[in-house]
Amino acid sequence: MSNVTFSICEDYDVEKIRRIFLRMLEKLDYGEKIRSGERILLKPNLLAARKPHRAITTHPAVVEAVASVVIDLGATPVISDSPGGAIRGAQRVLNNTGMNDVAKRLNIKTIPLETKGANIFTLPDGEKLFISKIVEEVDGIINLPKMKTHSLTLTTFATKNLYGLVPGFRKAEFHKIYPTPRKFARLIVEVYKAVREKIRLNFIDGIVGMDGNGPSSGDVRKIGILGLSDDTAAMDAALEKIIGLKSPAPITIELKRQNLLPDFAIEWLDGIPAENINLKIPSNWAMRFVPAFITRSLGALVQVYPDVDEKKCIKCGDCKNSCPVSAISMEVGKTAPQFDYKKCIRCLCCHEICPTSAVIFKKSWLAKFIK
Length: 371
Prior knowledge:
Structural class: alpha/beta
Radius of gyration: 20 Å
Largest sheet: 10 strands, mixed
Number of helices: 14
CATH topology of the largest domain: Rossmann fold
Helix content: 25-40%
Number of domains: 2
Strand content: 15-25%
CATH architecture of the largest domain: 3-Layer(aba) Sandwich
């Protein structure tokens, strides 16, 4: 039986978060989770070079609180991730998200994950999975996800956050190979299996999260919780339960299918649960429930496509560079993107990476009636 502990936390006060984290740790055998002399990877969600108030990335106060506890226990924390926003430089991401400031205050290192090379794993279908070698260089991982919805996978919690251990642009390439929620969920679970033995703790930042059309263009939502578990799959399933999800997200379904989801118990510090934390799901998600024979029959009549809000678009080219099938054409700095819908695989990488939320969902006329 795995335990998932949650606590109400209303703001990003580092000392308050630290106290909550320590109280949660006391419920686990933390002497086995963080040992003196070890090197511990702190793996936040650093999706892109966004400021913390936009609720797209793990807040630096959460990272600082956890890092300070790791230091006090005699271990050495390092901060690393492979952002989608690395298109324009990993250091830009580390600066904008506040990670470099945390590192300076605590005298620890931030490491662009791409600098470490990768180990290669063979997936069940024969494809090659690349995982950063930083995983083998550390003694353990503390997974620090951000609580958000996701327009492809419905949620992006603890298991999905591990996708950041795949270095560089290979992440976008995998969207071409595994374009549907079910197929992509299988990939995410393979990433989890590859690093599972190194994961010591999962501590989720749900103080301010995102719902709606996440993971980067949704609505900033004050949720007011933190959560801790030593089991990644249990953390995801527990979160889905407390947010009132009507059916499991694809990743959780796959975890259960592969017998990776243990029985778990939910506990709230001081016995006080949060209230009214139902998250609004992405607007395109209803399309995922349309039977395949209908979409095959009606084709373009029941589709959701990416489109651009030209008033928001800054013509930076990030969407074009992130597209795994080269379905976007534009003159960077001059024109807004144009989408080739015959090539587009609806992976929504462009929507995820856009720095101004200018990539929006365009529904066909019949899709507008599917709620």
